[in-house]
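README: folding subset

This subset contains proteins for which both the sequence and a predicted structure token string are available. Records are stored as plain text. Below is the entry for Nudix hydrolase domain-containing protein (263 residues), shown exactly as it appears on disk.
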Amino acid sequence: MTGLPLPAELADRARDVLSGRVQPVPARDAATVVLLRPGPEVYLLRRKATMAFAAGAYVFPGGSVDVRDTDQAVAWAGPSPAEWGEVFKADERLARGLVCAAVRETFEESGVLLAGPGPGSVVADTTGDDWESDRLALIDRSLGFADFLARRGLVLRADLLKAWAHWITPEIERKRFDTRFFVAVLPEGQRTRDVGGEADRVVWRSPGEALNGEFFLMPPTHATLTELSAYDSVADVLAAPREIETIMPRAVEIEGEMRLVTR
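--- output ---
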């Protein structure tokens, strides 16, 4: 059990949390989507250096669940919220919010929309000015996701998502997320865009290339890329059996040094 050494400031906070002098902050429910294309390659965004959480890190699209993501009015195709809840060990309301957040955040951060006019179709192109206007309205929360889909006559394609993992930010962090990871394939005809916002760079890389040391990666991202690097194709990823286990790294003191371990 070697773990990841913690910087001095975080090590001091870890000791405070472990001793009970500081109480952990609650973890916010969130969803992340590993967007794949043939290769396989994954879509990564670099978070701006000014961000309060994971500044400078390369991450997958994702973010916190908005309370409106749990709206039962969302037009839906594919596995039901109850079925997703069984997979992620969540109640039906939260499961609906996680799936909606996954699709909404992917659109907000990449321009890719996992929705279509019907249960067997997907939007072909989302690059027009009207789509951009809606994307920005979703980001500033002036537009709810259910209203966005309803206005365009679209159905959320929950069947295009595959559950992959469940990570909770360590208790020693000042900002924490309870994040379910999904994987999805870039729909035919759609393309990602460098949409800005919280990111200042986007790239497509094979999982192996993303692990070569060029990018700063948080432990969940690194672990997910390591898992994906074992597969030769997108089809292999989608066919892979997954049993979702909750992983929350924890701080331990090893020979006087605070380290972060996952097991």
